[in-house]
Amino acid sequence: MKISRKTLGIPYGLFLVLFVIAPLVVIAYFAFTDGTGHLTLGNFVGFFSDPNTMGTLLYSLVLAFVTTLVCLFIAYPVAYVLARSKWKRKSILLLIFVMPMWINFTLRITALKEILTLIEGNLAFHPFLNTVIGMTYDFLPFMILPIYNTLERLDESLLEAASDLGADSVQAFLRVTLPLSTPGIVSGVSMVFLPAMTNYVVLDMLYNSTYIMGSLIGSYFSAYDWNGGSMIALLLLVIICIFTFLTGADESAGKERGGALL
Amino acid sequence: MRKMTLKNLSLFLALTLGATSAGAFFSGENAKEAQAASEKPIVLRVCNWEEYMDLGEWDPEEETIDLESGDILGENALYEDFEEYYLETFGREVIVEYSCFGTNEELYNMLTLGDVYDLVCPSDYMLMKLMTENKLQAFSDEFFDEENPYNYYVRNLSPFIRDTFENHQIGGEPWSRYAAGYMWGVTGILYNPEEVDAEDVQTWGILNNPEYFRQVTIKDNVRDSYFAALGALRSSELTDPAFTGAENYGEALEELMNDTSEETVAQVQEYLQSVKDNVYSFETDSGKADMITGKVLANYQWSGDAVYAMDQAEEDDFYLNFAVPDEVTNLWFDGWCMLKKGIEEDPEKQQVAEAFVNFLSRPDNAVRNMYYIGYTSVISGGEDGDQVFEYLDWNYGAEEDEEDTVAYNVGYFFDPEGAPEDYTLIVPEESLQRQLFAQYPPEDVIRRGALMRFFDGASNAQINRMWINVRCYNINNVPFALRVILVLIICSAMVVPMIRKHKKG
């Protein structure tokens, strides 16, 4: 029996319609209506004119930005050393960095909470710092993997050529290695930045009492305000779209992202 | 062990059922019974709080409650026992589909989204909301017939709870018509007596007390926080003898604690903003663990969870106390109610739902629940046995040779008209600050208990707005120039890779 390509696509097509498109339509409907079902832009106007919700957007952005930066500064050297290592079994080394992902997330954060309490004494004194630490801990593998993948495939002869032409190691890094690893960085950044804006579980568990965008959705829903919650969800989607458009249009970055999903 | 018995049981049932139907088939006499057995089982869809019913599997050696009137032991989950009980008593097979919810709001959203249940167990304010929205099925007249021996609920309900359910009305009808109580309690402060001054926990102001900077926790939901803030803000009025001694104290207290005028909401917001800068965390569940591990010294807590935390801490020889602030406490109830959408006016199904409530209200089952979940049942017992009071004595009563004991009266709950010496326990002195106090607060605490109603449309929106204002970071705290710089940094960080790409191209 011959199975056409189209037939093979049916399961995913169904999935797409049921679990991606349908919920999106519902979210969009709620976001643009008020409690009685009338079309309105009031939800959005309310968000952008309220200093508290705007503050939440800013707080989330700053938090995500700092987390991404910290992740990048830790991940890049690690990925670099790993990729350059002459050791034959570096996949084992890589495994050590990825392994935390296999442990339940709640368990990891609970453990981190205890460790931070030992160090700081009282977690409540440094909520922002703790959140950054928690998120970095959580998202670091997502930054290491794509960068490692690009660096690993970097052609050594390019570096040799650079040194033949008189570049010292710093110059070679800045002029050859760094630009060639940009796709990995971009995909790593997008995989850390976006979840960092919404993952309020880390925030809650580490006792940061300030809301981020994710917690705002939850608070709208628990007040039966589905319109407000959907509005925030849609807003996040737009931010994600802009972000992906700015960075992800790069085709090679797209490839790396596929590799990083491992 | 449990699996074996279950297996045996089903084998036994299969055999007996097989035998009766076979016998009926051959003799032709019991045709009616055979028909009953082959009828489709009734499915009862129950949705309860998580961890809010005895799920059995007790250790017979360690956990048997040996009361004078007999041992109590939870082998199977209560809803499984109900299936067996119903078949034995009413001759029909019932299947209970048991599921759970996490918060009242979650339950409400589930119901609005179209999930169908027959019997749910929301808290007082959610009951009121569902009642107002005409979603509930009234209990039948038979349910209130005290002569019927199977009506365990009306026969064993605490008079105190009965009065409360009858005196509170929604749209001219008392709660009791639509809801049967399950568990109840108060709110207060769980604290570490070695570090916290007992006087400081007698006021809700402890949440904002700089002496415990970053060492107290508050509840992460708007209702509980609103209540505590109002208690602290109105402290002097609430403790004024002229107020507490007034004849209409109860009603005045409830009015005051349900005040959602604009001015009050603004005051609460301001107060909670300063509380936010003083507390360790806003928590729903983690507070208990943080008390036990000593991360915090005091914790805004519901009485049932306080009992649980005190029990847990005791296992590590660490003792926690519970206090109810002098101003006011939030008296709350969780109750069973039937949903119109589920019952669909089917009298058979309604009878099963009512039998389920009655089964849970049988005093021995109430004790099983209390032992398992730590909360206080609305059942006081009486006509069908005194197990609840016996259990209290078994659990909290002093040993015979113990010194420093005090008398502790819980008559208001069991029998308000009885003699004062009835329902008085002789307990070790320290129980006055501990589990017993939390599980069965003394009458003076109950007196300052206020129910909190649900916020309707406009005030709900207003109070949610207030909550968001408390929890969100206000952008006005950031100087305008810094705001611009931050946005620029973030934008450039996103745009730079793109420009690089274009340059390359």
Structure description:
The complex is a heterodimer of chains A (262) and B (505). Chain A has one domain (57-260): MetI-like (MetI-like fold). Chain A contains 12 helices and no strands. Chain A starts with a helix and ends with a helix. In chain A, 79% of the residues lie in helices and 0% in strands. The model of chain A is unreliable at 251-262 (pLDDT under 50). Chain B is built from 24 helices and 20 strands. In chain B, helix 1 packs across helix 2 (31-38), helix 4 (78-90) crosses helix 17 (347-361) and helix 13 packs parallel to helix 23. Chain B is globular, with a radius of gyration of 27 Å. Residues 1-29 of chain B have low confidence and may be disordered. The chains are: A mainly alpha (262), B alpha/beta (505). The interface between A and B is large, with 40 and 46 residues.
Keywords:
heterodimer; A: 262 residues; mainly alpha; MetI-like fold; globular; disordered C terminus; B: 505 residues; alpha/beta; D-Maltodextrin-Binding Protein, domain 2; 3 domains; 7-stranded mixed beta sheet; 5-stranded mixed beta sheet; 48% helix; disordered N terminus
Compile the SSE list and pairings.
The complex is a heterodimer of chains A (262) and B (505).
Chain A: H1 5-31, H2 42-49, H3 51-84, H4 90-98, H5 105-120, H6 127-152, H7 156-164, H8 169-198, H9 200-205, H10 213-222, H11 226-248, H12 251-260
Chain B: H1 2-27, H2 31-38, E1 42-49, H3 60-63, E2 65-67, E3 70-72, H4 78-90, E4 94-101, H5 104-113, E5 119-120, H6 124-132, E6 136-137, H7 152-156, H8 159-167, E7 169-170, E8 173-174, E9 180-185, E10 187-191, E11 216-219, H9 222-233, H10 235-238, H11 241-244, H12 249-257, H13 262-276, E12 281-283, H14 286-292, E13 298-302, H15 303-315, E14 321-323, E15 329-330, E16 332-339, H16 340-343, H17 347-361, H18 363-373, E17 376-377, H19 387-396, E18 405-409, H20 411-414, E19 424-428, H21 435-439, H22 443-447, E20 449-450, H23 457-471, H24 480-504
Parallel strand pairs in B: 1-4, 1-5, 11-12, 11-13, 15-20
Antiparallel strand pairs in B: 2-3, 5-16, 6-16, 7-8, 9-16, 9-17, 10-13, 10-14, 18-19
Helix pairs in contact in B: 1-2, 4-17, 9-13, 13-23, 14-15
